[in-house]
Amino acid sequence: MTMLATIFCPEGGHFALALACALALMQGVLPLAGLRRTDSPLTALARPLALSQCLALLFAWTCLVTASLGNDFSLKLIAETSAINKPWAYKIAGLWGNHEGSLLLWVTLLSLWCAGLALLPGQSAARPEGLPLRLRARLLALLGLVGAGFQLFCLTTSNPFLRLWPVPADGMGMNPLLQDPGLAVHPPLLYSGYVGFAVPFAFAISALLDGRANALWARHMRPWVISAWALLTLGITLGSWWSYSVLGWGGYWFWDPVENAALIPWLTGTALLHSVLVVEKRNLLHVWCLLLAIATFAFSLSGTFLVRSGILNSVHAFANDPARGLFILGLLGLYGGGSLLLFAIRAPALPTPQAGFSPLSRESALLLNNILLCTLCAVVLTGTLYPPFMQLLFGRTLSVGKPFFDATTIPLTLPLLAVMGVSMALPWRQTRADRLLPRLAPALLITAGNILPAFWLFPTPLAALSALLALWVISAALCDLILRLRGLPEGSRQLHRLPRSLWAASLAHVGVGVTILGLCGMAGSQERLIEARPGTHATLTGRDWELTALTAHHGPNYEVVEAHLTIRHHDAHGPVLTELTPEIRLFPRQGQRTLHVAILHRPLEDLYAALGSVKEERDPQGQSHYSAILRLHENPLASWIWLGGIVMALGGGLHLLPSRRRPKPVEGELRSCR
Amino acid sequence: MPLTRRHLLAALPSLGAAGLGLGFIRMLHGLDRGQFDPRAINTPLTGQPVPEFPALSSLPGQAGLTREDFRTMTQPVLLSVWASWCLPCVEEIPFISQLAASLAAPRKKRDAPLALWGLCYKDQPASASRWLERAGQPFTRLGLDQDGQAAIEWGVTGVPEAFLIMPDPQVGGRIVWHGTGGLTEAVYQTRVVPHLEAAP
Amino acid sequence: MSASFPLTRRKAGRFWIILACLLCLGGAVGLVLNALSSTIVFFMAPSQVLAHPPTPTRTIRLGGMVVAGSLHTGRASDDTPEARFDVTDGQAAVTVQYRGILPDLFREGQSVVALGRYDGHGFTASEVLAKHDETYMPKEVADALQKSGRWDPRFGPPPNAADWNSMTVPHPDTPPGPGAAP
Question: What predicted TM-score, i.e. pTM, was given to this entire model?
Answer without folding.
Answer: 0.76
